[in-house]
């Protein structure tokens, strides 16, 4: 499985970004997809996840009400709409997809929130 993220960048506080993650390869047993993030000097933390059709979604407390995760099952793609961004949201964002064979990760995309 290959996961390719896109959509990161530099944004001012209060701004918005939309991240995308497209899965390819052996995607047939993927159900959950989601996002983690890692700030400099910190551990990688859970951000959000969604099942295959978006019926069940989960969020870290720190992003509830500001971030929205969505799925396009036909395209094997997961999105993360990030609104009301704060400087503490600055991190490398990683897409992930667990399978019975293991957890697959994308290469990461940098999100920087700064004025």
Protein model, in words:
This protein is 0% helix and 54% strand. The chain has no helices and 11 strands. The strands form 2 sheets. Strands 2, 4, 5, 6, 9, 10 and 11 form a 7-stranded mixed beta sheet that branches. Strand 7 (67-72) and strand 8 (77-82) form a beta hairpin.
Number of helices: 0
Evaluate the radius of gyration: 13 Å
**Share of β-strand residues:** over 45%
Structural class: mainly beta
Average of pLDDT: 94
Number of strands: 11
Low-confidence blocks of residues: none
Largest sheet, in brief, is:
7 strands, mixed
Give the CA-CA distance, first to last residue. Answer: 37 Å
| Helix coverage percent | under 10%
The dominant shape is globular
Instruction: Give the SSE order as H and E letters.
Output: EEEEEEEEEEE
How would you summarize this macromolecular structure in one to three sentences?
This protein is 0% helix and 54% strand. It has 115 residues and is mainly β.
Based on the model shown, name its key terms.
54% strand; 115 residues; mainly beta; 0% helix
Q: In terms of topology, how is this protein built?
A:
Elements lengths: L1 E5 L2 E3 L5 E8 L8 E6 L5 E7 L6 E3 L7 E6 L4 E6 L8 E9 L2 E4 L3 E5 L2
